[in-house]
Amino acid sequence: MTTDATANDTTDGFNLLIDALKLNDLDTIFCLPGIPITDLTRKAQAAGLRVIAFRHEQNAGNAAAIAGFMTQKPGICLTVSAPGFLNGLVALTNATTNCFPMILISGSSEREIVDLQQGDYEEMDQLAIARPLCKAAYRVLHAEDIGVGVARAIRAAVSGRPGGVYLDFPAKLFAQVMDADAGRKSLIKVVDPAPRQIPAPDAVRRALDLLKSARRPLILLGKGAAYAQADADIRALVEKSGIPYLPMSMAKGLLPDTHEQSAAAARSYVLPAADVVLLIGARLNWLLSHGKGKTWGGKSSKAWGGQQYIQIDISPQEADSNVRIAAPLVGDIGSCVAALLGGMGADWARPPADWLNAIAERKNKNIAKMAETLARDPQPMNFHSALNVVRDIIKANPDAILVNEGANALDFTRSIVDMYKPRKRLDVGTWGVMGIGMGFAVAAAVVGGHPVIAIEGDSAFGFSGMEVETICRYHLPVCIVILNNNGVYGGADVNPTGGPDVAPTVFVKGARYDKLMEAFGGVAVHVTTPAELRSAMEEAVRSKEPTLINAVIDETAGTESGRITSLNPQSAKKK
Q: What 8-state DSSP symbol labels residue 99?
C-alpha cells in the first residue's frame, strides 16, 4: 500500500482512495485542487499517480470522460464541493449521454449538516442532485467502505452501456484512520468489470436471415462501435459481407474513410434508399433523424421510410425507441459482430451490383465536386480552403488525434477531413456540447500517446480556451487551429437598431487568439493563407510543441446553425 504509515501502522481515507485506484490500474486523475481535496492531489502525485490539474472543473470532467472512451477504463475526475461539483456534473451528464465511462469524485459537506440545512460551508446535497443525471451515484461515509465504493463505481461505469458515476466523499472521510492491514484487506480488485454478453443464437440467425434477404443493405457504424475496440472483426464483417457502410462522426476511421465500401460521400442517397440497415453501436436519435422523415425516405417529418433494422446494442431497451427493430441483437458489440461473422459462411452473397454501382456513381460525383471546391483559393480563406490543409496534414499523420468542435467548424471538418484509424476523431457527440475541445485535447495527449490537432471554431474555443495554460504547463503535443471568422457562425451581423452595441453573434474584430498561447510560453502563429497554415501545422506536428494557430477566415463564410437549421425556428423561417 502507499499509506503514510505511522508508528502503529495505520492508514487513512486519503491513502485508501489512492490505493483503491492504483489497485484497479486507474493511474491518472483529472482535477482542480481546492478544499477539501488539495491534500489528496498532493498525496496522489507522491504515490505515483499522474495528476493533471485544470483551470475549470468542466474541462477536467470532459478530459476524464474522453479518456474513458479511449481506454475503456473509467476516467477519474476529482473536484471540490458544491460549485466545483456542479461544474464537473455537466461533464458527468454528458459522459452518461454519450456512454463514456467516467467517475466523478467530489468532496462534500457532512450528511448531518446537509440534512438539517445548518448552513455549512458550501452546503449542498450533492448525491441527490447527481443521482438522476448519471448512471449511478454512491456516498461513502466510512473509510472501510472506500474499497467497496470504488469497486462499485468501476463496475457501474464500464458494464453494460457505459456511463458516468458519481462518488460522494464527505470531507471528514479523508481524515478517518484505521488499521493499515484491515485497510488493505478492505480494498477490492475488480474482476471482469465488463463481462461479455453473448447474443442469443436465434437472434443471430434472425439478423443473418434478414441481411441475406436485403437488396439494398447498409451498415451504420456509431461511436459505440469505436468504443468496443472490436476493430478487426468489424472490418472483417464489412469486407466479407461486401455491404456499404456509413460511419457516424466518432466512428470515422474504424475503416479508412477512403475505403471503397464507404458510403459517406453518398449519405443522402443511401439512407432513404436502403432496405435493410444494420446498426452497430449507433442509436436512431436526432443525429439520424430518429429513423424517420425525408432523410429515410418518409413523406413527412414523422413518416417512417419503411426500412427494416438490425440493431446491435447491449441494452434491449434501445430497440424500438423510434421505429420498429425487426432483428434486435442484444449483447456486447464484439461478441455480436463475431457471432455474425461466424454465421455468414463461405458462400455469403455480396449485395446486388445495381445497388453498389448506384452508390459508386453518386460517390464519385460528390467526391469530384468536393475536389473542385477544395482546389479553389479564395481570398480571404474560407472553411474549405483552410480544412483542405487539415485534410492533408491528417493524411500525412494518420496517428494524430483530431479533436473537433464548433458549428460550421464541426460540420465542415467532419465532411472534409478523412480519418484513417479508429478512435482518432473526438468531437461533441450526442448533445453537440461546445466546450469539450481543450479538455478532450489534454486527455488525448495524456492517454493517447500521439500528437493532437484541435480544430476549433472561434466561438467553441471561448468555452474552454483558458486551458491553453494547462497544455503549456504540462508541455503537451497539442496544435490548436482556431478558424476565426469573428463571431458565432460569422462576424457579419449588424445591430438592426443602429445602436452602439454590436450584434449578439459578433466578436471583437481581428481578435488575436494566438497571443493567449504566447502569454503562457507556447508557440503562437497568426495565419491568413493556406500556405501559412500548412507550414505552421507541419511544424507543430513535427516539433510536438504546444501551438495555437489563429487562422483568419472569411467572416461571411459560415451558415447559421450549421447543419441543424431545423432546430432553430427563426433560421428555418428564412429558408
A: T
